[in-house]
Amino acid sequence: MQSTAQTIPLPSSRRRIPRPRLPRVNGFFFFILPGVSFVLSLTLFPALYGIYISLTNLNLGYVGYSFVGLENYGRLLEWDDLGLVTRNTLGFVASVVVLQVAIGLLVSILLNQKLVGHQVMRSLTILPWVLPSVVVGLVFAQIFGGSRLGIANYVLSLFGVGQMSWLADPALAMALLVAVSVWRGVPFTVIILLGGLQTLPRELYEAAVIDGATAWQRFRYVTLPLLKPILMISLIMGTGGALNSLDIPLALTGGGPGSATELFSISLYKQSFFHLDISYGAAIGTVMLVVNLVLIVLYLLVLQPRRSANHD
Questions:
Q1: Which residues form the ABC transmembrane type-1 domain (predicted)?
Q2: Of 15, 23, 135, 279, whose CB count within 10 A is highest?
């Protein structure tokens, strides 16, 4: 016997009123919000405050200060050593970034191979990054000291070579500064690129080998295109680190001999803490911030993968 029961509609007063569906907020946002807030509090606020200070005449040798507008930037444009420091900074940053990324890419590819002792070599590669930068600068300043106490001169004397004034020659001092900075920064680049290499799909390399691709072709047409986003991150971070580098240049050369290795970071430090002219140092720091942002935008425009205009 079939049931003939019918569904009796509820009175309008008892009908369930559908609730409006609110858009869901991605839960990932709440996980990154504390970290983003912490980072912004340590970067955005000091940057904005530094821009504000650059528009004043704040000097630690005086009690008060007032708003002076772009006066400090005018002083910067009239600086006699502006051209020399600009050339030093651009040459230093370009040399460090190119060598750091090139050597880091080569070392990361070698460490990514399943060779004997590659785990030990990975640990040894990271050691320069563990050492404090100031200690690295002071140690290499002692190694390349111009007297007999300099380790480099002592080693050369064992082979009958006379003493060399390593840090008294402008070109040699800049070359040593670049070399030490690269030695210190390569491990960080290796860590980033090695992590990127380990995420690349092995199937593509196996297919390339089957197709008869050589090692260079696999590197050019498989590794580099897939590693392009990681290389962009390495370039951005390497450029920012080299442009803002202070500890190693200050401990190794101090900007000398004369102003041969003077960088914007050293000038900022000297103006702010030697001459106590905080506002002028803030103006130099603001210029460095703008240069950092411009370089980041250029990297993104050149290296960011372009989406095709035609979508399927």
A1: 86-299
A2: 279
Residue 116 lies in a domain: yes
* Residue 21: pLDDT band with limits 50, 70, 90: low
Contact (CB, 8 A) for 308 and 260:
no
Q: What is the pTM of this model?
A: 0.83
Rg (CA), the chain: 29
Phi, then psi, of 127 in degrees rounded to 5: -55, -45
Q: Count up the domains in the chain and report the number.
A: 1
In a domain, 279, yes or no: yes
- The CATH number that applies at residue 227 is 1.10.3720.10
Whose structure tokens read 């111009």? 146
Show the CA angle centred on residue 279, arms to residues 277 and 285, nearest 5°: 105
Asked if residues 104 and 163 have their Cβ atoms less than 8 Å apart, the reply is no
How confident is the model over 94-153, as pLDDT tens digits? 999 999 999 999 999 988 887 777 778 888 888 888 889 999 999 999 898 877 778 888
Written as six digits, the tokens of 124 are: 């040894």
Domain residues for the domain of 149 are: 81-303
Please report the pLDDT score of residue 105 as a whole number: 93
Is 70 in contact with 55 (CB distance < 8 Å)? Answer: yes
89 contacts 243 by C-beta, under 8 angstroms: yes
